[in-house]
C-alpha cells in the first residue's frame, strides 16, 4: 500500500520505510518556531530544567510578530527578555519586531522546503504545507521537549484528499476556495487529519494562494494542510525542481472530495463560525464599522494588489475604518514600489506595521461592543478581534476592500464592475 504526502514525511522523519495512519511515531524535527506570545515561556522552562542549549540552533526560529510595535511597557519588556534568550541560546533564525509575521517570513526567506517536518507554537503553522512540508502547531510543553531533544511524537493522521478542477474567475480568490471547503466539511471535518490538495486546479494555484489554503486548514481541525511540491513550488524557491514527496498512486485516503473552481464566486463566512459560509452576494449586505486587510492568511502582495484594484479611484465609505497590515516588511516595500500602498492610502486606508495586531485582538484597531467588521484573516469567533459582543465576517481581500468602499458586506463584483 502506498503513502500520502503526510505519511511519507513522517516516515522519513521517524527513520522508517513505511508508516500507516493511526500509528504513533517519534520524528526528527527539521524546524521549530516560536513567537513573542510563547517564546519567553519556552526558554524560561528550558532554563528551569537545567537545559541551556538547543538541540540544533540552526533549526530554531524566533519571531516577534504578534505585538508590533510593543503596545505596552510590559510587552516591551517581554520583547527585551526574548532578545536576551535569543542571544543566550544562540538561536539560528531570529526576526525582530517589524520584519513581519512568522508564517510569511519563514517561506519568504527560504526557511521552508518540501518534505520538512515543522512545528510552531502557533496553530497556523500549517501554512508551511503550501510548500510541500508537514507543519503543525504545538503547545509550549511539546516545544520545550523538541527544542531540547530535536524530536517529537506524532500520531500519523488519516488524509482527506481534495481534487480541484477548473479555474477561478477574476474576482474569486483562493481565500474563497478555502471558505468553500470549510462550508463543505465543517470546522471539525478534518479533525486531526491531513488535508492534501491536488488535481489540475491545485496545480494552477500560485504559492500565495496555497499559503492561504494551508493556513486555514487548521480552522477545519487539520493537523496538516499540504500542497505536494511541483514546478510552482520550486520556482518560488528559486531553484530547479528536485525530488520531493508526493502521494503514491495507491495511497489510501479517508475521504476524497472534488471541487470545481469555476463554479465558485466570492464567499463570506458569517458571524461567528468559519464554516457558516454563503456566497458574498447572499451575505445580507450588513453594514460594517471596520474592514481589516492583512494577517498570515491574506497580507501578501497579491492580496494588497487585489484590494488596490478594487479601490483605485474610490474611497472608503464614511464611518468605516479600513486597516491594512502587510504580512512582512518585504511585502510592504514591494507594495510601495508597485503603487498599491499609495492607492490604498488615497482611498482612506490606515497602514499598520507588518504584524498580527488586529487579527488576534491584540492591538492596532479592535472592534468595540456592538460593532461589525469584515476581515481577510482566519477566525471569526466572538472576541477574536476585540469585544465578544462584536461580529466578524471573513472574506477575501477583494471582498474586504469592496465592503470598505460600500460600507456594507458586498460581492466585490458589485463595486469593481459597477
Walk me through this protein's architecture:
The chain has 2 domains: 257 residues, Aconitase, domain 3; 145 residues, Aconitase, domain 3, CATH 3.30.499.10. Helices cover 32% and strands 19% of the residues. A 7-stranded mixed β-sheet has the order 13-12-18-17-14-15-16, sandwiched between helices. Strand 2, helix 2 and strand 3 form a beta-alpha-beta unit. Helix 6 runs parallel beside helix 8. The longest helix has 16 residues. The mean pLDDT is 97.
CATH topology of the largest domain, by name, is: Aconitase, domain 3
Number of strands: 18
Strand content: 15-25%
CATH class of the largest domain: Alpha Beta
Shape: globular
CATH architecture annotation of the largest domain: 2-Layer Sandwich
Class by helix and strand content?
alpha/beta
| Helicity range | 25-40%
Largest sheet: 7 strands, mixed
Radius of gyration (Å): 21 Å
Amino acid at each position: 500500500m502506498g503513502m500520502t504526502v503526510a505519511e511519507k514525511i513522517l516516515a522519513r522523519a521517524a527513520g522508517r520505510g513505511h508508516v500507516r495512519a493511526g500509528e504513533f511515531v517519534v520524528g526528527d524535527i527539521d524546524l521549530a518556531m516560536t513567537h513573542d506570545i510563547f517564546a519567553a515561556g519556552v526558554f524560561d522552562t528550558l532554563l528551569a530544567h537545567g537545559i541551556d542549549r538547543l538541540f540544533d540552533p540552526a533549526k530554531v526560529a524566533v519571531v516577534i510578530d504578534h505585538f508590533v510595535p510593543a503596545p505596552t511597557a510590559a510587552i516591551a519588556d517581554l520583547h527585551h527578555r526574548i532578545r536576551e534568550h535569543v542571544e543566550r541560546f544562540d538561536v539560528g533564525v531570529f526576526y525582530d519586531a517589524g520584519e513581519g509575521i512568522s508564517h510569511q517570513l519563514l517561506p519568504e526567506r527560504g526557511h521552508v522546503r518540501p518534505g520538512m517536518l515543522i512545528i510552531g507554537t502557533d496553530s497556523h503553522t500549517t501554512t508551511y504545507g503550501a510548500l510541500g512540508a508537514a507543519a503543525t502547531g504545538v503547545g509550549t510543553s511539546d516545544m520545550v521537549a523538541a527544542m531540547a531533544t530535536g524530536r517529537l511524537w506524532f500520531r500519523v493522521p488519516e488524509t482527506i484528499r481534495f481534487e480541484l478542477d477548473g479555474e477561478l474567475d477574476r474576482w474569486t480568490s483562493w481565500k474563497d476556495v478555502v471558505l468553500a471547503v470549510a462550508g463543505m466539511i465543517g470546522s471539525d471535518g478534518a479533525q486531526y487529519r491531513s488535508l492534501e490538495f491536488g488535481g489540475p486546479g491545485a496545480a494552477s494555484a500560485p504559492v500565495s494562494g496555497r499559503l492561504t489554503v494551508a493556513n486555514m486548514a487548521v480552522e477545519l481541525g487539520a493537523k496538516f494542510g499540504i500542497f505536494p511540491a511541483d514546478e510552482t513550488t520550486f520556482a518560488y524557491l528559486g531553484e530547479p525542481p528536485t525530488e520531493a514527496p508526493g502521494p503514491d498512486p495507491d495511497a489510501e485516503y479517508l475521504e476524497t472530495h472534488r471541487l470545481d473552481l469555476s463554479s465558485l464566486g466570492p464567499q463570506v463566512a458569517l458571524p461567528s463560525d468559519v464554516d457558516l459560509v454563503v456566497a458574498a452576494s447572499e451575505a445580507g449586505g450588513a453594514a460594517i464599522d471596520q474592514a481589516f486587510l492583512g494577517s498570515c492568511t491574506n497580507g501578501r502582495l497579491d492580496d494588497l494588489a487585489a484590494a488596490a484594484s478594487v479601490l483605485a479611484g474610490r474611497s472608503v465609505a464614511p464611518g468605516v475604518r479600513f486597516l491594512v497590515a502587510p504580512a512582512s516588511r518585504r511585502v510592504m516595500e514591494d507594495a510601495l514600489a508597485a503603487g498599491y500602498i499609495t492607492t490604498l492610502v488615497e482611498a482612506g486606508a490606515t497602514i499598520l506595521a507588518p504584524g498580527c495586531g488586529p487579527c488576534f485582538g491584540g492591538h492596532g484597531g479592535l472592534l468595540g461592543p456592538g460593532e461589525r467588521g469584515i476581515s481577510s484573516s482566519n477566525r471569526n469567533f466572538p472576541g477574536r478581534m476585540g469585544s465578544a459582543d462584536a461580529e466578524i465576517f471573513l472574506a477575501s481581500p477583494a471582498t474586504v476592500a469592496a465592503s470598505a468602499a460600500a460600507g456594507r458586506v458586498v460581492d466585490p463584483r458589485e463595486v469593481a464592475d459597477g
